[in-house]
Amino acid sequence: MNFDINEVLADMLNAMKGSIKDDWNVVKKSANNFIQTKKERLELLAQMRLIGAIDNDFFEKRLADEKEILTAELHSIAIVNKVLAQNAANAAFKVLENVIATALII
Fold it and tell me: Which pLDDT tens digit goes with each residue over 39-83?
């Protein structure tokens, strides 16, 4: 499986959009900015996991850290309440986790 960080980030944003739904137009620009600022870190983290340079426990801990950062960033948008922010961050990072898990199986 070829890992394409741009495709994964787009899928993460789509997952967030599905989670936020009606408020997406208000959140879209900020959410995209938040995700794009993580691009290099997430790509490095994913690549290290895919080549076996880090184990799954370390990978999961780092993803949890990144998810917390995204949740905090989403909290900064007044329209998004705490549950929506958490759900959006969870949806986004589930996409990345699934891509890595699938790539490791293939």
Answer: 999 999 999 999 999 999 999 999 999 999 999 898 888 666 778
Give the tens place of pLDDT for each residue, 13-31: 999 999 888 888 888 999 9
Residue type, 92: A
Task: Output the six-digit token pair for 25.
Answer: 């137009």
Domain encompassing residue 55: 5-105
Dihedral angle at the C-alpha atoms of 87, 41, 69, 81, nearest 10 degrees?
Answer: -40
How many domains does the chain divide into? 1
Question: What DSSP string describes 52-78?
Answer: TSS-HHHHHHHHHHHHHHHHHHHHTST
